[in-house]
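hi! just following up on the protien thing from before. the input was this:
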Amino acid sequence: MDMDKEHQQSSIAHFYREEFVKHKLRLVSQKDFYSEKTFQELDAALDKIIAEMDHISRLDDFSELASHLLAKIDFITHLSVSPSGQNHRIH
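and the predicted 3d structure came back as:
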């Protein structure tokens, strides 16, 4: 893999990692709205995605996969419809 492609891949992975971190923070702020089991499962899934982002970003269909996962997580956290600056609080 040449350096430009590797740098681009790293930048894209970093962008998506940060997006998933934002959703994780939002989920934590909404913890009281979920059963403990549901929260733990969602939290574990986000932790796994975040931890494996460098590996996932090497997949051929990474952009499609990452967009799909973000849409699924956003359906739960509703982060995309919250006013700017309210990533940590929901009230």
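Residues 32-79 form one domain.
The chain has four helices and no strands.
cheers
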